[in-house]
Amino acid sequence: MGNELIKNDNEINNIFDNIKELVISSRNKVYSAVNTEMLNLYWNIGKAIMEIQQGDERASYGDAVLEKLSQRLTNEFGKGFSKRNLERMRKFYIYFPIATTVSSQLSWSHYLEILKIEEEPKRNFYIKETINSKWSVRELQRQRDSLLYERLTLSADKDKILELSEK
Fold it and tell me: Which of 46, 75, 114, 145 is placed for a possible disulfide with 89 were both Cys, Cβ 3.0 to 4.6 Å?
């Protein structure tokens, strides 16, 4: 009888491990799908705002338009559509005018950090490094705040700087 219990426990452990892997895999797929759709939504909102402003991000009526849009969207859909967030979505579209250049490997939080970077080569560097090194948002912030890009561009020993950045 003791052997049967052990055998049953082993079977249950195996079934549990299989189900656990299924749950984790499904959760990751759901997260990825939600993230991709959210990035698409924010990109399209940014595009719509730029079309309203006819490509002029500093249009004099822009602030009033964003304020009214923010109020209506917030009333209809709740949080997440503040004037500041709409400005970020517009900037997201401006920095990434081709939808296919938006990587779903990064979250909206990653992109919020990336949007703080004005220079395109620097922005591209941090995007690539975040993806390749699988940086969290905090790690991206830390690397940006430590001026990794600037140190690399000034350094003769780029490999050494990249190695130090990983520590």
Answer: 46
